[in-house]
Amino acid sequence: MRVTVDIVLFTLRPDGAATLEVLLVERGVPPYEGTWALPGGFVHPDESLETAARRELREETGVDDVYLEQLYSFGDPGRDPRGRVVTVAYYALVSPDRRPPEAGTDARAARFWPVAALPKLAFDHAAILEYGLGRLRTKLEWTGVGFELLPPKFTLSELQRLHEAILGRDLDKRNFRRWVAARDFVVPLKESRRTGRKPAQLFRFRGR
Amino acid sequence: MRVTVDIVLFTLRPDGAATLEVLLVERGVPPYEGTWALPGGFVHPDESLETAARRELREETGVDDVYLEQLYSFGDPGRDPRGRVVTVAYYALVSPDRRPPEAGTDARAARFWPVAALPKLAFDHAAILEYGLGRLRTKLEWTGVGFELLPPKFTLSELQRLHEAILGRDLDKRNFRRWVAARDFVVPLKESRRTGRKPAQLFRFRGR
């Protein structure tokens, strides 16, 4: 039996449009050569699972120094044409102002793809990505994830666009503001920013 | 690299004292022969991870037909003296009125141990068990887990004793009742049970 790691790494497109994106690589080797996939690869005998995930991410995409969290292990027989391979999936979020990815080792190309318009993915990576998206949405609901994805000071409209991007649907402005007010993860600042007709109050995430 | 599954299965002691227990087996084969461990074993080439977890649980302890949930994968080099072994841990809860476990295959004995008074455990199973306990406590906080552990109708005192058993500490009665009232996972019934001086109202879990 062989063990791999795969990484589901989300970001926002750095154009202010709040498009949720995921990091993919174009495979340069069989199986699925030329098909897009999550970055990842085999665990080396002497490294921990998380070390393997960080190494594969760095080697295949140039992305380094991110917060990683173990997501779930996928091990159905038949999920990999090379034989029995169990993969331990990791989840990561990176800031929209990160450097663009750079392909390396087994990856022919590395780029962010909008979650709403993905190419066909190798192996069972579509299911792994879907599981990662579920984790992101759950975290959003309970902890107001997003400090990795927004600037230190933001307006409630920016926060709402982030939530809409992650949930994949529009939210009612008044309901969203009520939802935020009932939680304590954002703190109002004594500052505002001119946006359109009137100034919008700025907020920060608590503890940041 | 080899892949195993291990199962962290919790229950309450069926004596009404709300003692949280975990299912352990005494290993009948090296390594760690004669030491207590979580039930588990190697994944067969043709079975899924969850199928392997159910099979090992049934073979080693006679416990069958439980709700299993994947917990976390542990894969540090050196965690197993046999070489590199990655284990996928599963989490389960069973009702206190289940049949007693029966040892089989690689297990010399199988029994429930109080979480507060565990023997020394093989491999990194103490860390896996601790992780499982963390999951149980998180679920308790968010979803009021426990319907597997209480009878269909219960008093708030019974619910409080369950929470105290899982959290491993005493709770203030008034704070606990306020906490329950602020959530919607229990429903008051138009029934009560005589306990001591005055009748205590009965509750059920919502949706059960």
Write structural notes for this entry.
The structure is a homodimer of 208-residue chains. In chain A, strands 1, 2, 3, 4, 5, 6 and 7 form a seven-stranded mixed sheet that branches. In chain A, 25% of the residues lie in helices and 33% in strands. Chain A folds into two domains: 2-143, Nucleoside Triphosphate Pyrophosphohydrolase, CATH 3.90.79.10; 154-205, Orthogonal Bundle (Arc Repressor Mutant, subunit A). The first copy, chain A, is an alpha+beta fold. The first copy, chain A, has four helices and ten strands. In chain A, 36% of the residues are buried. Chain A has helices at 49-61, 125-143, 156-167, 173-181, and strands at 2-12, 20-27, 36-37, 40-42, 68-74, 85-93, 107-114, 154-155, 186-195, 198-205.
What are the salient characteristics of this protein?
homodimer; 208 residues; alpha+beta; Nucleoside Triphosphate Pyrophosphohydrolase; Arc Repressor Mutant, subunit A; seven-stranded mixed sheet; 10 strands; 25% helix; elongated
